[in-house]
């Protein structure tokens, strides 16, 4: 497992592009026929990617996290960003269509991934965080998610945010997970920007054409930086960082959060005029 140790905001002014990307951008999560994980000390969130094709992929041992099982003290959300597939959690099979999410609870012994069609493989994106209780694993389909319509066409930021792992949809310990889709011809996400000192966040951008990029803005509001983000890349957003962006073409992203609470509205908005 690759490990990211986390950075103080005081380090940002001295970081060049490569260092900034090395600490905050995860570029290599998805490889056909592999499961990949990145462990971050930012609230100990683990990011993962699995692309099964022509066979199954599985995991469950805890050697990398220092416990008997991966899930001895963890929970996870798994979003399918690709073709239809299955996630088998301790023998229970979930049929997972594109944009469905599986919640995997603490105590799980094994997770197995498969694609329905190797020519159009499932692309499973994972967020795992420490958990303090056993909660049953379950599938949350796109239809079962809770949509919020945000933004406006006139500001190019109209979008639908869908909550999947959220107290109003399904219980978890401290993980929150959802998917946001900008409306056609709208490019901005997360406007106005905000901070949430009590939670970190990770974004995984997807459904972006190969030639396009999302300009993801990060950093303290008074000293922002940017990351040029490609399809399938994930971005870490510590509690002190804004997180917002604009695409050069259509895109969507999965957001995952953990921290002190699950209060989605516990945010401090930042006025655009105050960004530097
Ligand atoms: O477009 C948005 O707005 C979002 O997707 C916001 C994220 O979910 C977020 O930053 C939650 O704190
Ligand atoms: Zn946020």
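Q: What amino acid sequence fits the structure above?
A:
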């Amino acid at each position: 497992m690759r490990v990211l140790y986390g950075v103080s905001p005081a380090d940002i002014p001295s970081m060049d592009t490569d260092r900034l990307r090395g600490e905050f951008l995860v570029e290599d999560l998805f490889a056909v026929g592999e499961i990949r994980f990145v462990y971050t000390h930012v609230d100990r969130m683990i990011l993962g990617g699995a692309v099964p094709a022509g066979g199954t992929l599985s995991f469950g041992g805890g050697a990398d996290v220092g416990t008997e099982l991966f899930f001895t003290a963890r929970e996870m959300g798994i979003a399918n960003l690709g073709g239809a597939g299955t996630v088998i959690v301790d023998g229970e099979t979930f049929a997972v269509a594109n944009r469905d999410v599986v919640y995997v609870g603490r105590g799980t012994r094994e997770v197995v991934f498969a694609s329905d069609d190797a020519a159009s493989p499932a692309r499973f994106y994972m967020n795992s965080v420490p958990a303090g209780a056993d909660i049953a694993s379950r599938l949350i389909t796109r239809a079962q998610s809770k949509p919020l319509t945000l933004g406006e066409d006139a500001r190019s930021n109209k979008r639908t945010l869908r909550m999947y792992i959220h107290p109003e949809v399904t219980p978890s310990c401290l993980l929150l997970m959802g998917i946001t889709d900008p409306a056609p011809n709208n490019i901005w996400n997360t406007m106005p920007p905000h901070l949430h000192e009590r939670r970190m966040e990770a974004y995984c951008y997807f459904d972006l054409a190969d030639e396009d990029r999302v300009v993801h803005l990060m950093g303290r509001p008074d000293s922002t930086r940017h990351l040029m983000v490609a399809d399938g890349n994930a971005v870490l957003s510590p509690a002190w960082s804004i997180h917002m962006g604009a695409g050069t073409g259509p895109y969507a992203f999965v957001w995952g959060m953990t921290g002190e609470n699950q209060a989605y509205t516990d945010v401090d908005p930042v006025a655009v005029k105050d960004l530097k």
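Q: And what stands out in the fold?
A: DSSP finds one helix and 24 strands in the chain.
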